[in-house]
Amino acid sequence: MKVAVAGCCHGALDKMYETLELLQRRHNVRPDLLLCCGDFQAVRNEADLRCMAVPAKYRHMQTFYRYYSGEKKAPVLTVFIGGNHEASNHLQELPYGGWVAPNIYSVLPSSLGYAGVVRFRGVRIGGISGIFKSHDYRKGHFECPPYNQQTIRSAYHVRNIEVFKLKQLKHPIDIFMSHDWPRSIYHYGNKNQLLKMKSFFRQEVESNTLGSPAASELLQHLKPTYWFSAHLHVKFAAFMQHQTNSKEELPKATKFLALDKCLPHRDFLQIIDVEHDPSAGDSLEYDAEWIAVLKATNSLINVTQTSWNMPENNGLHAKWDYSVTEEAIKEVLEELNHNLKIPCNFTLTAACYDPSKPQKKVEPVHTINPQTTEFCAQFGLTDINDRIQQVKEEGSVRGEHEEEEEEEEMDSTGSAEEPSEYNTDNSGLSSINPDEIMLDEEGADEDLSTCSVDPSPDHPPDFSASFSDIRIMPDSMAVSSDDAMDSTNEELEKSGLSKQVEEKSLNERPLKRIGGNENGNSSIKKIKRRNQAIYAAEEEDKTE
Description:
Keywords: Hydrolase, Iron, Manganese, Metal-binding, mRNA processing, Nucleus, Zinc. By secondary structure, the chain is α/β, with parallel strands linked by helices.
């Protein structure tokens, strides 16, 4: 089957789908599935825009709301993960994944969920949402709207529990998606060409600090056939040969591809041919092993800011292996009567944007999505949003008791501190996040926009890519001799991909149920320069 893979969508669904339709008209190529590697921006209304961690100049409604309302329908089944520029309140409704619009499924925070695995035509597709940030990695998922300047960013930071769950998987993964790149992957592709296009990556590449160590850990463990990423707004391919643990184990390799952002004349979209099960249906399906892992790890869910470590074999934990047996997988299948089809139970949970009636003062609310309620009830899982609400209520009760004690102390001493009319929350004083790419208001040092060939009758795309035979790899993406072993070079030449087109969240706001600097200015300047360069061509692209 043909699978289309897109980079950062940034809400431009119309442009993305129009590109696919153009391919069909000109070259009779129609993908069976579209994968999007984050920054999808499923923005339904003005409240969603306020939950997106971007400067005001980038807060545009774009076109997702038309698909949410039903005005339009995605022409191809679309599966996506979350990035670091998302309507986090919307995606947070679906921690285990779910439909954000008809025919558009979120694998992570409203797609695949925070992390997840699904199947389509027998192809096993996994993903993890968000980006890596070390100081949030060991926390629970405690954030909820309305967000402050910290939680609006920490909401999309990867957590160790999601990585731990994914590492319990034993069965092979065909395709895996992450928003940020696995750390070190650039050593397995044409590093020189990458640095030629993005020279401001050099220091991080040479110090091996570019990318996510969590994603790198998953890459080493899962060894998927394909790994797709986005985030850095540059196209880059690599081929990683994995080491075997025993002589009996067959060698495994991962074909990595990072895509550019979705804008006209950008090389943001890729078509690949993927081997599939001809006898499998055309519906998106649950993955039985993943459901079993969710059930096995349900007791580990944490919705507090307390940092904690996952169980490991260090003498401190009675249990550290949460991988599941074939019997547990069989039990899941029996629970579902061997019908793994994901129900098409999309439900509107927020008012849709109406251009004729702008609602600029609408406040985001913490919502429980019926899809999540149904999913948790079916498999006996904890509804993360419901648990967050319980913690909030418990905190409210504790707060009342503390207020009573303060009043008693005031009566006995005859004095108490007068409440201040000023906001004493200083959590928003520093919003610099040096570990991640952020949109920047300032201009750029250089114009790094890249040009790709727009599909045309004179330049037809090559769609010969497949798991077993990927023949067309752009010369610029070949592994250079100083980057990999000769054997990897040889394999990459045979392999190729056809060229195409971000603490005060536990607040007292009621839950809405829907029925049915790190120190050092030089470091900051370095990140700013990188951010500026990545987004340098933003305004230019919009005028093309």
